[in-house]
Design goal:
This protein has about 200 residues and is of the alpha+beta class. About 20% of the residues lie in helices and about 35% in strands. It is built from 4 helices and 7 strands, in the order αααβββββββα.
Length: about 200
């Protein structure tokens, strides 16, 4: 009589890890080798820039960062502010020039959903009652009014973040508007605290 082989013997899995394109699949057996070699040399600004370029490919640099922001939309019919459902890290980004015009955008990468906030900056920015007020035109040509609330806490790394980001956004918007009116073209390199 022929012997039967057990089925479990036929379907043994290999102990050799399979190659993967995903960085999250990197083996974590040894704490000293927690990141793939190509990621070990990348700084946080470089990682942030690569993530932003997936959402907004024209991004060339990050001008400013706020660790946490909430986006509000103004309802003209009801005359009040409504939460948009977008909350997360706020980035002020410089984009590649178009027709020799400087371009900047505010990007909030949403932690609560799949829709991110991306608003090109123009000259119309206000800072009132702790909110950064942006005005933009949507795809249908209608005006939108957005309020950005930036988290800050006294005696921490976020102290002064709200005002600093408001000044940065206002400066970037005016640089973009000045560029459109024919004034000098300048670029940023890396992070800045406050634009003059």
């Amino acid at each position: 009589m022929a012997s039967r082989r057990s089925r479990s013997h036929q379907f043994q899995t290999s102990t050799v890890p399979q190659p993967s394109d995903y960085e999250s699949d990197w083996p974590l057996a040894d704490p000293t080798d927690m990141l793939p070699p190509r990621l070990m040399q990348r700084s946080n600004p470089e990682l942030n820039l690569s993530v932003l370029q997936r959402h907004l490919p024209s991004t060339t640099s990050i001008v400013s960062v706020a660790h946490y922001a909430v986006v509000y939309a103004f309802s003209p019919s009801a005359q009040h502010w409504e939460k948009s459902g977008i909350e997360g890290t706020l980035f002020v980004c410089q984009q590649s020039p178009a027709a020799n015009l400087e371009r900047y955008s505010v990007v909030v990468l949403n932690r609560k959903g799949l829709n991110d906030f991306i608003c090109p900056l123009s000259g119309d920015i206000d800072f009132e009652n702790g909110y950064i007020i942006l005005r933009s035109t949507d795809r249908n040509g209608e005006d939108d009014i957005w309020g950005l609330w930036v988290f800050e806490e006294e005696a921490s790394s976020t102290a002064g973040s709200r005002e600093m980001n408001a000044k940065t956004i206002q400066a970037c918007a005016s640089r973009s508007a000045n560029s459109a009116s024919g004034q000098a073209f300048h670029t940023f390199s890396g992070y800045v605290d406050v634009l003059a």
